[in-house]
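During the no-cost extension, the postdoctoral fellow (Dr. R.K.) reprocessed legacy sequence entries with the updated structure-token encoder. One reprocessed record is reproduced below for audit purposes.
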Amino acid sequence: MRKLLASLALGLAALGVFGVSHAQDTTASEPVAATAVAEAPSAAAPAASDAAPAAAEAAPAAAAPTPVPNKGDTAWMMVCTILVILMVIPGLALFYGGLVRSKNMLSVLMQVMVTFSVIVVLWFVYGYSLAFTEGNAFIGGLDRLMMKGVWDNTAGTFANAATFSKGVYIPEIVFAAFQATFAGITCALIVGAFAERAKFSAVLLFMVLWFTFSYAPMAHMVWFWMGPDAYASADVAAEMTGKAGLLWQWGALDFAGGTVVHINAAVAGLVGAYMIGKRIGYGKEAFTPHSLTLTMVGSALLWVGWFGFNAGSALEANGFAALAFINTLAATAAAVIGWILGESLLKGKASMLGAASGAVAGLVAITPAAGNVGIGGALIIGLLAGLICLWGVTGLKKLLGADDSLDVFGVHGVGGILGALLTGVFNSPNLGGPSAVADWVTVGMVAPADYSIVNQVIIQAKAVGLTVVWSAVVSIIAFKIVDLVIGLRVSEEEEREGLDISAHGETAYHK
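Re-encoded structure tokens follow.
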């Protein structure tokens, strides 16, 4: 019985996720080397139940000891999970809440908080299984439905999840909890695009559909792989890579969610802004934020919590977590400077709203690059994010013609695309980046002479393109279904009164 349990634990542990820079892949200049190995850093990698039978068969017959999770890594990941929750509640809720008019403050807080709660529940029911178990290149299976198999209550044993280092594990339930917060905040981000006019019930129904058919598949395509220990020999390497998600197989680099989280959510938000329509009075009357103080507090909480989001995506308390940590600090500070510099040049004044928005833009842009680039690369990405996202919420917004209430696409879409593309540039060891894994059997890295920036940027662009198309198609269908079933928008009378009273029967402030 002990041998059976040990074998099961090993099988579960072999299925990992890749997200840290040292486990990233990139595309080597030699196409053969690039396709032979999984490429693309990510922030997730579970241990699926049927981890790697082929690798197990290739392993020596001698029974290996049952893996013991590292207590330091486990504690670190639980702290990071709490930090991501801080990003959403209260961070994102207050950031968004301060930007709307006072009569809609509570409606935004409700939409963020309840959306996060609904998605966390769905994640443990079926989302985790669809994202992080073996299936096909687009979606996982149902091996972890209702989180079955993550622990044996009779024996008191827990399934393990692989990290990005061979032989290093954390409890799978910790990995699942960490990834639940990613799913929750991604859906909550969408709320800002159609704030102040969407039905509460419509928002929730849309989130259920979009989470199921856009978020879970994208997470699987970008982050699911069989884990480092599955690459036991060169004989099974190609087979193990073939079981990974589609974008992983391509070699797309996404350390903590540039595609899965930001671009994915931003496209959904933009589609929603078009399909729900503009707010009454948009373009004719001022829609000024009712509390920039709360917006600043929210952005600060986002910045603090984002260290868990990015550094936690290493899945270990190691040097790559530290690299993601310092890059999150540096890029965000540079983005604040970039945004207010651009404002000063365009308007003659730098604003508090600009500084807060710049911080979020920097956080977004560094997300896919956090453990994939050097510190110099992070500073450049942050500075460019501040400047380009400023254009995203001004010039680009006018070109698009949508009432994206809180500039979800201008910041998260533009910043996410910028960060994803520049990850391919600054991952290069010739530009101070850590490079990528060229061979998961030996964990050998792509040599500076073999790294092709052009090839990697092309792969990054393909990943961005697939994310945009996938999210757009799912969003259009989901919004249409919701509109047919319950309607997307509140009545004109309810919108003029404010959603706090009309939807929730309460007010944020009593005069």
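The first strand starts at residue 151 and ends at 152. Residues 1-61 have pLDDT under 50 and may be disordered. The remaining legacy entries will be reprocessed before the final report is submitted.
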